[in-house]
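User: Fold this, then the next.

Assistant: Folding the first:
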Amino acid sequence: MAIKLHGDPRATCYQRVAFILAELGLPFETVTVSIAKNENKSPEFLQLQPFGKVPALDDNGFVVFESRAICKYLANKYAVPGARLVPEDGDFEGLALFEQAASIEQSYFDPPSSAYAHDKIYKKFHGEETDEAAAAASLATLDAALAVYEGMLAQRQYLAGDRLTLADLFHVPYGVVVKAAGAQEVFDRYPRVRKWLEGMEARESWRNLVGNGREEVV
C-alpha cells in the first residue's frame, strides 16, 4: 500500500509535504482534493482531516494531518542515514535548536508571508481586490523578521546549526510564492537570507516538484 498525500497540489501546505517526500526519496500517490471545488469540506475528506484543511497523509493506513506534523513524522520514520532532517533522539541541544528554528518559521515567517500571499495572489484568484495597505504591512513585518534571520545566518549555515533541517525547508513554498507575488526585493536586502533560500530552491527535490507543473497559489 503506497503513501497517499491527500491535498491540492496548488496549496503551499501540500507543497511543503510533497517537498519533504521528494527530499526523502519516498514515492507517493497524490489524491487530489480541490479547494476550488470545496472538496476539502466533503464528508470523505473530513474523515481524514476533521478541520477540512489540506493536506492529510495516509501511510499504509496510518493517517496524520497538519503539514509540519506530517513532515516531522516522515523525517523520523524514513530518516536518511547521514542526512537526517531532524536531530536524533537524545541530542537534546540539537532537538532544542531544531524546535526553536521550527517555531521561528511558524511564528515569524509564515504569518506575514501567508498574509501577503493572500492579499496579492489569493484575492485576485477569487476576483477580489488586493488590499495594498494590508499587503504592505505584511511585507514590512516579514522584512523585520528577515533582518533577524540575516543575523542568525551570519553565525551558522542553517537556522538550527550547520546542518540542513526541516525547519529550513519549511520556508521554501511560501518564500517562492512571496517572490512570485512581487516581493523579491525583500529577500535581496539580506544576502545571507537570499543565498540560504536560493540554495534550498536549487535542490533537486524542489526543482522536480516545480517541473511537475506546480502552480503558485495559496
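Now the next one, as you asked:
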Amino acid sequence: MNAARGPLQGQGHSEGQRNLPMELPIFPLNVVLFPGMMLPLHIFEPRYREMIDRCIAEQIPFGVTLIREGHEVGGPAKPHWIGTAARITRVEYTPEGHMNIMVVGTQRFRILELVRSHSYLSAKVSVFPVVNGSTRAAQDMVYQVRPKIIEYVELLSKASQTQLKLDRLPEDPTTLAFLVAIALQVSNAEKQKLLEMAGIPEMLDRERYLLSCELLLLEHMVGTQREVEAMSMGASGYIFPN
C-alpha cells in the first residue's frame, strides 16, 4: 500500500457535523490524516480490498490511524489511539483487481476498543471533537499563525524549487489549524501530537512554534542555494566564486 499526502489547498472539515459509526474499520498507515486532507491510496492487499468493498457497499467511512508498531503491509500493525475518519470520494479499479481510491478526512475519533472480527482491524470509537475553536484566544492565535504559514509556503517553494500554491487562508481558527497541520513538512510523530490536541488555541500555538523553527531552517537552505548558484567550477575541479 502506498500513501501520499494531499495538496496544500484546504478542503474544509466536517468536525462534529455527523456521528461516526460505533464500530469503524481501521486502516493503520505511515501517514497522519487530518480533517479536510485529501489522501490517495493504492489498495492491493485482499484484507483491505474487502474493507473498501464493505465501505462502498454500506456507504460508511473507515478510520486512518498512524502506525504505532508494525508495518503497513503484511502482519498486524498497532495503531495510535487517535485517528481521523476517511470518506471515499473516488474509486478506480485496475486490471489486476487493485483499487486506486481518493479519500478526504472528516472527523477525528478516539479508539475505545480494538475489534478483530474481520480480516482487517476494526475498533469501537467515539468522536474526538475540537474545543475552544471559537474563543478569543483561538482568534488571537490566527493573527499570529497566518503570516507565518504564508511565508513558510513561499520559502518552501524556493527551497524545493517547485511551485506550491496555498489558496486563500481561512479565517476560522479550526479550519486554519488543520490546514497548517496538513501543510507542515514535519515528522509523523509531530503531526500525531497535533492531531491529538483537543484545544484549537493550543494546536495553533504549537504550529506557530513549529513554523518558526521550520522558517529558520528554510531560510538557511535558501541562503545556501544562493551561495552555490553564485559559484562556478574551476578547471582544477575546485569551486571558485564568480
